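Example for tutorial group B:
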């Protein structure tokens, strides 16, 4: 039984433990984003630049949501 998402990095499939590390790191990054990273020169928060992609990757890892591009 698979407990973590199947993640491949540069052609190498990660073990369940390595995939867990990626999942936990993304959750920690989401927490950092929730605290706001500040603004770029154009006044748009850096969090806005990352949140959509982060949410998509987390959804893929947690539930296997298919890519829609």
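The residue assignment follows.
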């Amino acid at each position: 039984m698979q407990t973590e998402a199947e993640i491949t990095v540069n052609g190498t499939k990660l073990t369940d433990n390595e995939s867990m590390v990626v999942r936990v790191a993304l959750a920690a990054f989401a927490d950092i984003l929730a605290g706001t990273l500040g603004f770029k020169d154009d006044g748009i928060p850096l969090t806005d630049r990352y949140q959509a992609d982060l949410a998509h990757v987390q959804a893929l890892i947690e539930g296997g949501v298919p890519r829609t591009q």
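The chain has a mean pLDDT of 78. Compare this with the pattern of hydrophobic and polar residues in the output above.
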